[in-house]
Amino acid sequence: MSLRVDAPAPARIRRFGRSQRWVHRTTAALMGVCVLTAACLYLPQLAELVGRRELVVRVHEWSGLALPVPVLAGLVSRAFRADLGRLNRFGPHDRVWLRAALRRDKRRAARPAAKFNAGQKIYAAWIAGATLVMLGTGLLMWFTHLTPIQWRTSATFVHDWLALTLGIVLAGHIGMALADPEARRGLRTGSVSREWAEREHPLWRP
Q1: Residues of the chain with pLDDT under 50
Q2: Contact 39, 46 (CB under 8 A)
Q3: Closest by CA position to 19, among listed 84, 88, 87, 78
Q4: Hey, what CATH class is 14-200 in?
């Protein structure tokens, strides 16, 4: 007669595959180029330091045009499509998480989350919409001969102010990532500790 011994649960679990990590890194790199080149175009101190304004403009335009490409390429991956589906579903537990976040309630039981929490879902939806608006207004500013001046003026206003808002939101996103080393490790290596997953995403079933 032999005693059955259950195997211990693995200390680390899979969170992201290669496709999800590639899309995130490539999009982040392109967004970083857009932000840096925009800063060089609008801040006189940086403009004088960098110079070559025409080159900076071209890099900004083409990196902006390329922003949707990583996401479109990632659609060939079933895992990436599954994550997009999770990000697009807002359930009752997400409303509970959001109310707790607004009350600054950090208790684990007060913030139920599946693979993505409500904050991550809102951020993903906002950044996707902002990127499309930036792309559309940028094209109106680029191809000046195709649209009336009123359109170009409005596009410039929206593009500039949304760019400022985008920079603030991205700074907040980066700040939150810096405060969570395990989340960053999950995007870098694809795996996270089981303890972190159970604490931050208790409804997630890998």
Answers
A1: 1-3, 5, 7
A2: yes
A3: 78
A4: mainly alpha
